[in-house]
Amino acid sequence: MIAIYARQSIDKKDSISIESQIDFCKKEFTTEEYRVYTDKGFSGSNTNRPQFEQMLKDIKHQDISKVIVYKLDRISRSILDFAKIIELFKKYHVEFTSATEKFDTSTPMGNAMLNITMVFAQLERETIQRRIKDSYYARGKKGFFMGGKTPYGCIKEQIAIDGVKTSTLKPNPEEYNVLIKIFDLYSISDLSLGKLAASLNEEGYKSPNGVNWDGQKLQRILRNPVYVKADADIYTYFENKGCKINNDISEFIGTNGCYLYGKRDRNASKYTNIQDHVLSLALHEGFINSHIWLSCQYKLDSNRQIKNSGKGKHSWLSGLVKCGYCNYAMTVKTYKDYKYLSCTGRTNYKVCDRKQRTHYVYEIEDYVKNELTKQLANLKAVKQDTPKEVSYELNQLKLQLINIDKQIDNLINQLAQGNEVITNYINKKIVQLDSEKNDILEEIDKHTRDDKLSQEQILDATKDISLWNELTLEEKKRIARRFINKVFVTDDVIKIEWKS
User: Fold this and answer.
1) Which parts of the sequence belong to the Recombinase domain (predicted)?
2) Which of 43, 61, 252, 296 has the fewest CB neighbours in a 10 Å radius?
3) What is the tally of structural domains in the chain?
4) Residue 142 lies in a domain
5) Closest CA to 218 of 170, 249, 178
6) H or E segment and range at residue 227
């Protein structure tokens, strides 16, 4: 069956009528078997036309073997749409003829013209794709919201910058506290993603899609840099991952979140391989301190979600207490209603020859809890002096360090291209920069010796310890592991090794 298709946008004196188009098309065949499809009053700018759509349905039902039109633009004025329709014709073995332009796909010349048309269609397609991609990356450079689903814990807020409408993010009051809890728990506890998900489900917290949490949902949240307060450490982390960073290092002052975008393997999960991805500072302020966010990344990178120690259910000090004589772990044993500590170096490995007196768990816990309270009070007093200034100064030092490393790398690359005189000057400059680098490293070391625990962590723990008896065993363990490295026990002394 032959199909004649005719289209006319509006009636004009100089516009060829539907009837005239049909007469021209009839001259292209002699058979009596044909079907006419007409669309009057429809534009050729798109393919949403009733009779045209009916013709395509008949083609798919294999009722049509050839389509004839008066001119190519009767099908569509868009090269892309025209190319798609021709591909459909080819798929169902339908020939195509333009009556006035002598465009006939059943002939070699007509087929060649079709191929030329398809090449231009592909060029237009790629040009459009490039424009879309360029626009997307241009938005990223400006820190605009990159589209897609709103991240968990956030809500979108419409804003306009230089006359351009975009969105920025701010905390979602209903989810923000859960978001903070996720990062806090995963960064400092021994919980695996699965156990963290189970804990959230048990407490009744809903995931982004309103159902139960699982490890995959948590990992996507923990990996997303949209939450982090991006500082020098974040710049270094993504630079080492092979990312292209849009912003200058001086802009990483620990305030704004980030957007990470780029092409990825369809079969790979997001954030699996971020080499050559682009990182841009966002317009919104971050929610998570960099040391907490990075702690989560290192834990995820190493696939170390659970430690072998600290699983004990009898004491919040499980995994922390060591024998002060042999340094082997002391584990909790029970006898009737009593819990006491036993040296594994003596009972399991036969390397400790000291038989200690009985150390009851409650005695050790009471002592450590009192010392922890004192330690928190001391840390709080020290941190309240100049926490913001110290943090800002430390970040500025790290930014200077990154800048010096870049200068040294550039100078080393120039050495191979220079003559003897230039090489001498470059070497002197490298020595000077190296000296500056060492000075900065000393300053950083001085700052970090007393600044490894944040003010927020200390305040949170101080609040928790005031409600100690109301905390669960896991919550007590979490606080202990945040501040205590080891507890050494001998017959005479209990020595606590604090985390710096």
Assistant:
1) 151-306
2) 61
3) 3
4) no
5) 178
6) none
Model pLDDT, residue 37: 96
Same domain for 267 and 171: yes
User: SS3 for 392?
Assistant: helix
292 Cβ neighbours under 8 A, 6+ residues apart: 183, 184, 187
Question: Is 349 in the same domain as 465?
Answer: yes
- The two tokens of residue 488 are 């050494």
Residues 84 and 13 in one domain: yes
For residues 271 and 160, membership in a common domain is answered with yes
Do residues 245 and 348 share a domain? no
284: nearest Cα among 180, 133, 159: 159
CB contact at 8 A, 230 and 197: no
In the sheet that holds 256-261, the strands lie side by side as 244-245, 278-285, 256-261
Residue 475 has a pLDDT of 80
**Residue 69 is part of which domain span?**
2-128
Q: Residue 498 corresponds to which tokens in the numbers above?
A: 């604090």
Closest to 323 measured CA to CA, from 190, 187, 133, 489? 489
Among residues 273, 225, 280, which one has the least CA distance to residue 247?
280
Relative to beta strand 164-171, strand 256-261 is: unpaired
- Cα-Cα-Cα-Cα torsion 100, 105, 107, 111, nearest 10 degrees, comes to 110
Q: What average pLDDT score do residues 67-94 get?
A: 87
What is residue 179's three-state secondary structure? helix
- The whole-number average pLDDT for the span 89-112 is 82
Asked if residue 311 is part of any domain, the answer here is yes
Helix (H, G, I), strand (E, B) or coil at 146: coil
Cα 278 from Cα 138, distance rounded (Å): 11
Q: Where among 301, 326, 359 does a domain terminate?
A: 301
Query: For residue range 168-182, what is the model confidence (pLDDT) as tens digits?
Result: 899 999 999 999 999
CA-closest candidate to residue 415, choices 431, 403, 404: 431
- CATH number of the domain that 95 lies in? 3.40.50.1390
- Provide the residue type at 429 as one letter: K
